[in-house]
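Researcher: Here's the sequence for the chain we discussed earlier.
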Amino acid sequence: MDRHRLRLHHRDRLARHPNDVTEQFEQLSMEAGLPPIRLHDLHHGAATFLLAAGYDMKVVQETLRLSSITIAADTYTSLLPQLARQSAEDAAAIILNADTGTTRGGMTTLT
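Model: Thanks. This is the structure I predict for it:
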């Protein structure tokens, strides 16, 4: 696709060139006294927060509007080792603090 023809649409339905959106973001960030950050870095930050909150890769893909889950996985899999460790620690804490004597429908449950 020709980069000069790419347009973003706002609620008012007016076309905006991606560079205009980036420039406006940079201006607003500067006015707010925020440290310099690329708009694209917020994209990665959102993925990191979603994964850290326990959402799966499909949710990341859909939220960021990536064309496929493969792109999400290829890009964000490097975050998973830290998250896997935390998940394992959280699961261990549930098990260690559980009362396994409770049954529900004949099945032992963790409470």
